[in-house]
Specification:
Radius of gyration: 16 Å
Helix content: 40-55%
Oligomer: single chain
Structural class: alpha+beta
Order of helices and strands: HEEHHEH
Shape: flat
Distance between the termini: 32 Å
Strand content: 15-25%
Strand order of the largest sheet: 1-2-3
């Protein structure tokens, strides 16, 4: 689910290694967030979707595009995830065998909102006919 705007700074796109590491991180993060290996009241009983992980070419930083299920409590979930990023990173390090686990930065994924807006526009065009 790669976005053209996210790859604008690198015209060739991500390397195969970046893609493999990102996919391994996505699976590990999904499992950790699903099992709730840590406790935080801001993340209690909230399902979080991880749609994409973008890794820097040197594999030191990772941008994790997330969205709480239904888009609820975004203003509390993202700061909580970024506050817990070092803890989550250490849990990921136990699951993914890399020399160095990238530093995680959680960002809101707006692709769901963009898709809904485009769908509404297409439906409006269809109704005008």
């Amino acid at each position: 689910m790669s976005s053209k705007s996210r790859r604008a700074n690198n015209p060739k796109g991500p390397s195969q290694r970046q893609l493999r590491v990102a996919e391994a991180l996505r699976h590990a993060l999904s499992e950790i967030l699903m099992r709730e290996d840590f406790f935080d009241p801001d993340l209690a009983n909230i399902s979080i979707t991880i749609s994409e992980i973008s890794i820097s070419p040197d594999l030191t930083n990772a941008r994790v595009y997330t969205m709480p299920l239904g888009g609820v409590q975004v203003e509390t979930v993202l700061p909580a995830l970024n506050r817990l990023a070092p803890v989550i990173q250490s849990l990921v390090a136990k699951k993914v065998h890399l020399r160095r686990v990238p530093r995680l930065r959680f960002l809101l994924d707006d692709s769901f909102e963009n898709a809904a807006r485009m769908n509404a526009l297409f439906n409006a065009i269809r109704e005008e006919r």
